Amino acid sequence: MQLFFELKKNLILSKVHPNRSFLFFYNHLSEEVTMALYITEECTYCGACEPECPVNAISAGDDVYQIDANTCTECVGYADSPGCAGVCPAECIVQA
């Protein structure tokens, strides 16, 4: 029953702000399905990926940048493809 109310709320919100309501719906689904990318050890620590993330899921680790799997949306609702992977010169951002 709660899912029904969430969907109804999202339908109402879509008339106000289409991208935002999609993200509410996506966030509900993401509790069940984790969508995330992973930065491999080939990371050159250049930092090009961090400003590309619309949800601030990328942060500097000790030797490589890291992506928070619980926050990453793979840019769904923001872009056609993950922005971080598109700007990575080392091509080290892959599916988790």
Q: What is the secondary structure topology, with strand pairs?
A:
Elements: H1 2-16, H2 18-30, E1 37-39, E2 58-60, E3 65-67, H3 83-87, E4 93-95
Antiparallel strand pairs: 1-4, 2-3
Helix pairs in contact: 1-2
- Categorize the overall geometry: globular
Distance N terminus to C terminus?
A: 32 Å
Helix content: 25-40%
The Cα radius of gyration reads 15 Å
- Summarize model confidence as the mean pLDDT: 79
Counted beta strands: 4
Give the class from helix and strand content and strand pairing.
alpha+beta
Residue stretches low in confidence (pLDDT < 50, at least 5 long) are 12-16
Q: What's the main sheet like?
A: 2 strands, antiparallel
Strand percent estimate? 5-15%
Number of helices: 3
The spatial strand order of the largest sheet comes to 1-4
Q: What do you see in this structure?
A:
This protein is α+β, with helices and mostly antiparallel strands and 96 residues long. It has helices spanning 2-16, 18-30, 83-87, and strands at 37-39, 58-60, 65-67, 93-95. A two-stranded antiparallel ribbon has the order 1-4. Helix 1 (2-16) packs antiparallel against helix 2. The longest helix is centred in the N-terminal third of the chain and has 15 residues, at 2-16.
Provide a quick synopsis of the model.
The protein has 96 residues and is α+β, with helices and mostly antiparallel strands. It has helices spanning 2-16, 18-30, 83-87; strands at residues 37-39, 58-60, 65-67, 93-95.
